[in-house]
Specification:
This protein is an alpha/beta fold. The chain has 13 helices and nine strands. It is 47% helix and 16% strand. Strand 3, helix 3 and strand 4 form a beta-alpha-beta unit. The longest helix is centred in the C-terminal third of the chain and has 19 residues. The radius of gyration is 19 Å and the shape is globular. The termini are close together.
Amino acid sequence: MRLSILDQAPISEGQSAKEALEASCQLAQVGDEYGFNRFWVAEHHALPSLASSTPEVFLGYVGSHTKQIRIGSGATLLPYYKPYKVAENFNMLATLFEGRVDLGIGRAPGGPSEASEALTDAFLPQVFKMPELVDELIEHNQNATANPPANPLPAVPPSLWMLGTSPKSATFAAEKGLSYCFGQFMSDEDGSEVVKQYKKEFQPRDGQDWPQAMLGISIVCADTSEEAHEIADSWVVWQLMQSEGATEKVPSSETARAYMDSMEDPAKVEAAKQKMIIGDPTDVVDELERLQESTGVDEFIIITITHSPEDKWKSYKLISKEVKNR
């Protein structure tokens, strides 16, 4: 079972953006040490509780502080940018960190409409042009003679991935011959059916002759299931706060408990937890094995958000150790 890490560089209550980014880099080092396959960082804009606005910049820092784990974007939001510049950015990373770079692309806005307007005057038209944008990116990624060249040209090009949360994105990735990551943690769709659809419809292209699928899931793991649920409360409350339009940072356990005590409908907490995997290492890996059997995915990419960076690092360590012990 291959495991990877997705991080959004969330900023916790009492933490600065710099500290959040440093903690994210330390998570990448944990992944490097414990045998995780990839470390991806998301792209979000104008969200005060997330520090991950420019993956292509942050990955240079992460790459220089890790040794073998693959590094990548999850995802670069292509409608905001010219494919040529994206290719240049990631060719630079792939030249510096040979054989370790992934370029995950998506088309979501990644923030409020004000941020979209600040980034481009034509976000929606660019979304509609996504097939052409991807074709141009593939050309610069696979064809060293593309004109103009996206220098520097790396010995090993970045691996291209499509990220999505719907059957439509699976079909798009399959038709373009891209590797595909389905964000189950952000979707109500059946990941099993979406991945099967992707593999069935996959059309090989040069450099990618077989379908490679990954599932993005939310997990909190601790020594005991009770402890894991207590740690997860901060993440769940933070999500509920965001759904109500709040911009608070990831709350502490104390803040989370106070919020839950004041809720008119406490069942919302348990409902949110049903979309996550929360438990001790045995329970978590049992569920991963069940998911792997039902979905047929090649890899899981795990997102974990906790108030304490130490709790997050420990969660990934426990999962890795349990998988290796089986």
